TrEMBL record:
Coiled coil: none
Compositional bias per record (Low complexity), positions renumbered to this chain: 33-44
Gene3D superfamilies: Amino acid/polyamine transporter I
Keyword GTP-binding: no
One Pfam family per UniProt: SLC12
Protein name as it appears in the record: Cation-chloride cotransporter 1
Keyword Transmembrane: yes
């Protein structure tokens, strides 16, 4: 890349903001300098060795091929020989030694962390701690799920739901909600058995499947759902306590009425102030317990299940003996008449306490009951949240989660029949604690069971929600969450304070029926994310998708996700829109402010599959002009020297953006590294990363490629043949004009330049050569001149299309297009002008058409006073060509041959044709200087290199063509139309 450009500085243009040349202190140069060559994915062996030196598994083995000794320690001790490995033939240590598995001993490999910004992706291993408690399926998954599912809704709301919806629609309600959670459990089982799980529960699964943006947005919503659910459980426990001990009420009890008439036995319900005060106190107490540590919670949690199971037994025993032992008003016992009376629904208005009231503000229907009941089937994530404490996550999570779902759903089905047949509808609607009324032999155990169950569930919510927030913060995706980060093994105290603050805020609301739908939305959003994750992974079926749980299908996951969305809209379309909007805002914020986290998510696989399908649909046939996009191959290797660590001329990226309409399109930036591939492979990877970083810095959509070749000609020939895939191969080669070749006496440039052009012609690639690249305007430099096109040969409309693309950029939007048509002296200029104008009109292009007549070749140049600059260049070119011909003839005489040699091959020189080319170029250059001296940019057709002419002659023709033109695009199309007249 160092061809010795002594005057490659960037001169400021005449208009717009001044362009500052790239220097060593430039931001881009600093970015290039900060790149660590070893940070790429293909790290060198010494880098890998340093990473493995961090492991604590066995001796530290040198990773250099053929090494058989441990590296010398820092204290200077002698190397100790180790056992020779049988796999040394392959140049690496044995796989067992590298991974530290050591013949399947107790040393266990930890799950590798996700690569992130600044992470080198090295594998770090550690022994499991000796005091870690590993749980099985029963205590690790099944019991937590049962505890979370069987809660306050079942005890104090389910009999009321049966009375309001009737037995028939209650069965439909249970089946509908149970099917949703069962399908979600299947999706959860599939994803959880596809690899090791870390902390974060569903956030971890969704984030690794759908990407960090989706994972963080749904994870934060799930965190809010858990925090709000804590308030739900606290309010349920307090309400139950005040029902059981009315004397504990601080404020006067509220007496509710049924149908505007006082009932014989007034129905009492606690006031909202009592719920608020006691709820806040209970929440604070639970927070102190949470601060005590999760170990104590895990030890006490199973004890909460015993009163719950005992209370369930009392409820069902009481249902069988109801009506016989201590009969109560409205309790009929298991009666067929009550079953028939309660079969149909009886939706009506109720007051805030849920008591039927014709003047009540709340009207209940099936959709509202779905929102009220659905929290009773949530809690299936309780097992997956404990994944770090499970012995075998891939066995325990599917079995425990689905078993808990089936058991609780069956319990709900049975309860619908029993509740509907044991009491009258009025009793079902007015007795909010019917379970305690029918319980036998100890009705008080129901109150104890409700309180312990709800407090245990609240404790789990206040324990799980902070850890979920801490897991999101520890992934370092969203900088605003850095306050909630915790070190491994530490308690998330700050996150617990924040969770308690949200929980207390919801407790102050004091209405259980208003909080329940809010919690439902966040849970449903999380369940939909789990189902969509499994759907995407199952549909794409990537090679890494190999879950041990085989009983899944993408259609089931899609059905589960659809049910979640349907239930959300059934409950409340307004709450649904708000929750989706909140998740969308978080997603947008994460995509803007979040850090990149490459977790190998399913969307990357989806993009890959979509790209393959799109590529196959494009095929390999010729692209229709209506669908033609410029795919420029930007040749970054300069004809000269660039500032250190700047891999590409800064204005090449600006020009590449000018070839795209509204930024749409792809550019391929390529450079060539001279040398042997085996020796320069690592240097090429580093240079490729530098070039890619520079492209991003210049805000240009494109990819970077570095090719190692013995020289530039061979490297470019390989690039032009192989770069791209199918119809996504580059169709335009863009490079800088070598203005310095004569000034620096670089004799190899002419042959290389001509060879590149000939390779493009053979490969059927269009060519755009930029002269005056240093003065090319950036996006801030507005141009007010014209865009002049010297349309000499048919190029498929490429020159016309390039001019239109330039007009779409802010720097050229004030310019106008002029088309100059070169015609012979005896041609009909007016007819040619009319045809061109009609052609441009059909192409929807506005341009002024000017026809220039060229005199015959044997007429001497006239108007020398007006073309003095061109004549001077013309005379100098003639003299240099004559000297070159003389040198060729002299070499031929020295070699005792009559054959003239140039560029290592014989040439058949026709001096008259050389003179003709010079005159043609002189006329064109003089016309450009006459008509386009003030143009913003000039576009002219690129003449092909003449056969049997030395490359030196062609460079003389080109120099004469661009002489004194500050900014020019030399364009050659290919044998395809890029514009069309038809719609």
């Amino acid at each position: 890349m160092n061809n010795g450009d002594a005057d490659d500085g960037f001169h400021p243009p005449t208009t717009g903001r001044k362009y500052r040349p790239v220097v060593d202190s430039d931001r881009a140069v600093l970015e290039m300098s900060s790149i660590d060559p070893g940070s790429s994915s293909s790290a060198s062996l010494p880098t890998q060795q340093s990473n493995f030196m961090k492991t604590n598994v066995g001796p530290q083995v040198n990773m250099t091929p053929g090494a058989s000794q441990v590296e010398a320690p820092a204290n200077g001790e002698a190397n100790v020989p180790v056992k020779e490995h049988k796999l040394e033939l392959f140049g690496f240590d044995s796989l067992v030694s590298i991974l530290g598995l050591r013949s399947m001993t107790e040393e266990e490999v930890a799950a590798p962390s996700s690569p992130r910004d600044g992470d080198d992706g090295s594998l770090m291993y550690e022994r499991p701690r000796g005091n870690d408690i590993k749980l099985g399926t029963m205590m690790g998954v099944f019991v937590p799920c049962i505890q979370s599912i069987l809660g306050i809704i079942y005890y104090i709301r389910f009999s009321w739901i049966v009375g309001m919806a009737g037995i028939g629609e209650s069965l439909l309600l249970v089946a509908f909600c149970g099917l949703c959670t069962f399908l979600t459990g299947i999706s959860l089982s599939a994803i959880a058995t596809n690899g090791a799980m870390k902390g974060g529960g569903p956030y971890y699964l969704i984030g690794r499947a759908l990407g960090p943006e989706v994972g963080v947005s749904i994870g934060l919503c799930f965190f809010l759902g858990n925090a709000v659910a804590g308030a739900l459980y606290v309010l349920g426990a307090v309400e139950t306590f005040l029902k059981a001990v009315p004397a504990a009420a601080i404020f006067k009890e509220t007496i509710t009425r049924v149908n505007n008439t006082a009932t014989p036995e007034p129905i009492q319900s606690p006031t909202s102030h009592d719920l608020q005060i006691y709820g806040i106190v209970v929440t604070i107490i639970l927070c102190f317990i949470v601060f005590g540590g999760v170990k104590m919670i895990n030890r006490v949690a199973p004890a909460f299940l015993i009163p719950v199971l005992f209370s369930l037994c009392c409820i069902f025993l009481g249902i069988f003996v109801a009506g016989k032992d201590k009969p109560a008003p409205g309790i009929t016992g298991l009666s067929l008449g009550s079953f028939k009376d309660n079969w149909s629904s009886d939706y009506q208005f109720t007051n805030d306490a849920g008591i039927p009231d014709s003047e009540g503000k709340n009207y209940w229907n099936f959709n509202a009951l779905v929102g009220l009941f659905f929290p009773a089937v949530t809690g299936i994530m309780a097992g997956s949240n404990r994944s770090a404490s499970l012995k075998d996550t891939q066995r325990s999570i599917p079995i425990g989660t689905l078993a808990a779902t089936v058991v609780t759903t069956a319990l709900y089905f049975c309860s619908v029949f029993f509740f509907g047949a044991v009491a009258t509808r009025q009793r079902l609607l007015t007795d909010r604690l019917l379970t305690a009324t029918v319980a036998w032999p100890f009705p008080a155990i129901i109150y104890v069971g409700i309180i312990l169950s709800t407090l245990g569930a609240a404790l789990q919510s206040l324990t799980g929600a902070p850890r979920l927030l801490a897991a999101i913060a520890n992934d370092d995706i969203l900088p605003i969450l850095n306050y909630f980060k915790v070190a491994e093994g530490q308690e998330p105290h700050f996150a617990t304070f924040f969770t308690a603050f949200i929980c207390i805020g919801c407790v102050i609301i004091g209405n259980l029926d208003l909080i329940s739908p809010t919690t439902t939305m966040f849970y449903l959003l999380c369940y939909a994310g789990v189902n969509l994750s499994c759907f995407l992974l199952d549909l794409l079926d990537a090679p890494s998708w190999r879950p041990r749980w085989k009983f899944h299908h993408w259609s089931l996951s899609l059905l589960g996700a659809s049910l979640c969305i349907v239930i959300m809209f059934l409950i409340s379309w307004s709450f649904t829109v708000v929750s989706l909007a909140l998740a969308s805002l978080i997603y947008y914020y994460v995509s803007i402010k979040g850090k990149a986290g490459d977790w190998g998510d399913g969307f990357k696989s989806a993009y890959f599959q979509l790209a393959l399908r799109s590529l196959r649909s494009l095929g390999a046939s010729q692209v229709h002009p209506k669908n033609w996009y410029p795919i420029p191959l930007i040749f970054c290797r300069p004809w000269g020297k660039l500032p250190e660590n700047v891999p590409c001329h800064p204005k090449l990226a600006d020009f590449a953006n000018c070839m795209k309409k509204k930024g749409r399109g792809m550019s391929i930036f390529v450079s060539i590294l001279d040398g042997d591939y085996h020796e320069c492979a690592e240097d090429a990877k580093t240079a490729c990363k530098q070039l890619a970083t520079y492209i991003d810095y210049k805000h240009c959509e494109g990819v970077a490629e570095i090719v190692v070749a013995p020289n530039m000609s061979e490297g470019f020939r390989g690039i032009v043949q192989t770069m791209g895939l199918g119809n996504l191969k580059p169709n335009i080669v863009v490079m800088r004009y070598p203005e310095i070749w004569r000034r620096e006496n670089l004799t190899e440039i002419p042959a290389t330049f001509v060879g590149i052009i000939n390779d493009c012609i053979v490969a059927n690639k269009a060519v755009v050569i930029v002269k005056g690249l240093d003065e090319w305007p950036n996006e801030y430099q507005r141009q007010y001149g014209t865009i002049d096109l010297y349309w000499i040969v048919r190029d498929g409309g490429l020159m016309l299309l390039l001019s239109q693309l330039l007009l779409t950029k802010e720097s050229f939007e004030s310019s106008k297009i002029q088309v100059f048509c070169i015609a012979e002296e005896d041609s009909d200029a007016e007819a040619l002008k009319a045809d061109v104008k009609k052609f441009l009109y059909d192409l929807r292009m506005q341009a002024e058409v000017i026809v220039i007549s060229m005199k015959s070749w044997d007429v001497q140049v006239e108007g020398a006073s007006q073309q003095e600059e061109s004549l001077e260049a013309f005379t100098a070119a003639q003299q240099r060509i004559s000297n070159y011909i003389a040198q060729m003839k002299e070499r031929a005489q020295v070699d005792e041959t009559t054959m003239l040699m140039a560029d290592g091959k014989p040439v058949d020189l026709n001096e008259q044709q050389v003179e003709k080319f010079l005159y043609t170029t002189l006329k064109l250059n003089s016309s450009i200087l006459r008509y386009s001296r003030m143009a913003a940019v000039v576009l002219v057709s690129l003449p092909p290199p003449p056969v049997n002419h030395p490359a030196y002659f062609y460079m003389e023709y080109m120099d004469l063509l661009v002489e004194n033109v500050p900014r020019m695009l030399i364009v050659r199309g290919y044998r395809r139309d890029v514009v069309t007249l038809f719609t």
